[in-house]
User: Fold this.
Amino acid sequence: MYPVYKSIGVKQQCKEIKVSFPPQHQESQPGLEYIMKPRPISSNPYYCESDKLQGKVAIITGGDSGIGRAVAYAFAKEGADIAISYLCEDRDADETKYVIENLGRRCILIRGDLKEEKMSKVVVEKTIECFGKIDILVNNHGVQFIQNSILDITAEQLDTTFKTNIYSYFYMTKAVLPYLKEGASIINTTSVTAYEGHPLLIDYSATKGAVMTFTRSLSQSLVSKGIRVNGVAPGPIWTPLIVSSFSAEQVETFGNDTPMNRAGQPFEVATSFVFLASDDSSYMSGQILHPNGGTISGS
Assistant:
């Protein structure tokens, strides 16, 4: 049995969100949320749902933790059933499923490595088998590896970063597309680094730039089919990816360089995905939203 994570109200949250975090580091990616201190805030109990996604079925990659988990919770509150694809973080995934089911929605977990194209087909097939349709695809999973110089980025790291962060987005989109009908939505997670770059995340930033351009190009390809494609470019958000990539010392000041002088929490990003998945954004495609703490980025 996993406890339902309870968070405090929005106003109180904003007062208590830390400007600095206790130093911590996890040795392997994509990281484990259940051992983070403090835990990321994934759910807002004061969220006012209005059935924006009632009866919809969503696939969320990397939905076991971090931003993906927060999106899954928000989608469930809006009435969607969820298929979560994740790599290996079983305990985080089980907790996310438990919370979604306690919200009254159905959830399936699909474990596997999306760097392999065949895994995308497995995710789609299992989702169709369970729910009978797919309305929303959220390509969200990713990795990042800190390196002080491009000279330190090995061919193996480059291959892993690109296969995880952009190849798999192609694979998932190709696998799901035959099942999407008019009115469906694809949402890709890019990053503020796609616009500003990052001296320690050269290969990661390059993949996120590719995701941004992929989103814009795909939107033009699918607009005639009535399928909208948009993206979200978060700034620094407190997720397992941070503690599994940055050093303990870097974690202490993570997000302090934003205009808001703090990192964001996953629940502060999730509503961007709800908006793009729902009919509220029916006149938007090829666009990117920027929940990033006030940083001015390119359009």
Summary: The domain at 48-289 is CATH 3.40.50.720 (Rossmann fold).
